[in-house]
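step=encode ok
step=design start
structure_in=
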């Protein structure tokens, strides 16, 4: 990522970007959409109380929390936290307070909600 982009993202410049629909109460700003076998990079903005259902990581996922607090079953991650989710790992994600994260997925995740019988 170019230095000017990194500085802009970590200094709150993301507040000026346009976000579109992603999931219920979660919006997205694509920095680099998935293309072929290339990873996807985006900003996700969670409204207070937003959540993403249980899902499996089909590839490596890395997250930098830029603002607020993101949570999963293993803990709460404050601004500045760096999270790595290994391929094959599963969890659900939520934010009680709202948050913005910079996320990179090697491959799209698989939502598991529909697999529960």
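sequence_out=
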């Amino acid at each position: 990522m170019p230095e000017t982009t990194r500085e802009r993202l970590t200094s709150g410049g993301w507040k000026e970007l346009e976000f579109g629909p992603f999931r219920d109460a979660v919006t997205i700003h694509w920095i680099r959409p998935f293309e072929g076998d290339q990873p996807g990079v985006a900003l996700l903005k969670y409204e207070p109380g937003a959540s993403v259902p249980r899902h499996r990581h089909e590839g490596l996922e890395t997250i930098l929390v830029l603002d607020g607090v993101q949570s999963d079953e293993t803990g709460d991650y404050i601004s500045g936290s760096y999270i790595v989710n290994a391929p094959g790992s599963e969890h659900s994600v939520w934010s009680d307070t709202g948050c913005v994260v910079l996320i990179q997925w090697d491959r799209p995740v698989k939502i598991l909600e529909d697999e529960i019988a």
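step=design ok
step=annotate ok -> The mean pLDDT is 90.
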